[in-house]
UniProtKB/TrEMBL annotation:
InterPro entries: GatZ_KbaZ_carbometab, GlmS/AgaS_SIS, SIS_dom, SIS_dom_sf. This is Tagatose-6-phosphate ketose/aldose isomerase. Keywords: Isomerase, Repeat. The keyword Nucleotide-binding does not apply. The gene is agaS. GO terms for cellular component: plasma membrane. It comes from the Bacteria. SUPFAM superfamilies: SIS domain. Pfam families: SIS. Residues 38-199, 203-350 form the SIS domain. One of its GO terms (molecular function) is isomerase activity. One of its GO terms (biological process) is carbohydrate derivative metabolic process.
Amino acid sequence: MHSSGRGFGDSRTAREIGQQPATWLRVAEAVRRARPEIAELLGLPGRRIVLTGAGTSAFVGEVVARDLARHLGRPVEAIATTDIVADPLAVVVDERPILLVSFARSGNSPESVAAADLLDRLTPGLRHLVITCDPAGRLARRWSGAAGAVVVALPDEVNDRGFAMTSSFTGMALAALLAFGVDVDVEALARAGTAVLEDAAEHASAVSGAKPARLVFLGSGPLLGLAREAALKCLELTRGEVVGIADSALGFRHGPKSVLDERTVAVVFLSADPHTRRYDADIARELVQSLGEERVVVVGDGTGTGGARVWPVPSPSRVPVAGYALLAVLAAQTTALACSLALGITPDNPFPGGEVNRVVQGVVIHEFVPPEVS
């Protein structure tokens, strides 16, 4: 699958999935120009780092938090804007200053602007790093030029025009890693991404050909955020006709395993971390016993996974676990696209009646009044 969307038709969604390896190189250049300003935001010791966004943008934070924490040597928290807006005092728990990293495709979601404004009001010394695909969006305009704020606008082609976020997800995740100085060989990442896309139509069609009613995505550590993004892509592009479910390899046994039936296909994202991978392989073998080899797909090196279908995804050197997630998500995106097409759905506009929208609608932001301290 190249940028033309070979094997998946000529939808905008297919093109935006296929263009990602090429866009990663341009994302790296955009971040390089902003690095001196970003370094100033990190200058205050003891500052909490909170990664935020809504939906897919929230999952960006979940994917990159672990590698950022390891690189920076301090905790990094991923908290969705939807949680911040609904319960801001769950975030503002002490007097430590916060660096709020906001991810947004458009920056026009009501919660994106409200979460940043709320924390700015409740947290003395709050600083902002906005990573967005739309410099004209409300979030970027709100913080561009503001004291203690840096806005990193990614290349225009990363601002997906299709319904589902694809290029914007991987672009913002890569930008976050590079912004904080995590070592990523972007050229090797792009080469690996191109290789994954070359065979994507074959593997994705095998999944859609099984006519799943439920797609279970399992991942551990940073790949749990990837699994959640994969399930969301499945729901969005199939209009909910294929139910996407996400969990961790270990957590799945604690009740969610009840979802398995004869129309379920399970996808296990194998971690590049050797310790974590053991648990992923364990659940893959167990699922093969439950569903059969044809209804279990392992993304990565399939060694020791009980005969499940293998979707090879390389793990280049100098690419952290979160970087590997950007390769593995290509499997999820193309699977969701293949299932959408198999159902006769238009992936660029799966909800022509407007039941679900690219930019969330119908959200009322209520004024937050802090409780009086007695």
